[in-house]
Amino acid sequence: MTEARDLAERAGDRDPRVGLRAVTALRRLVEQLEAVQVRSARQQGWSWQEIAAELGVSRQAVHKKYGRQ
């Protein structure tokens, strides 16, 4: 996870260009990690409601985002 740590450090850079690029990269990384974990939860039999509760979103939101994958 050194990449994530490096990106987190760069997100706090005094140069907004460096910081914003790091934020964008972190956002992509988080989206990828979330998808992996949602897929894992579904494979283990979790309901959309259980996943939504852990993510702090509605069941409808998580199903809409991942339901067709």
Automatic annotation (TrEMBL):
It holds the Pfam family HTH_23. InterPro entries: RNA_pol_sigma_r3/r4-like. This is HTH domain-containing protein. It comes from Streptomyces spectabilis.
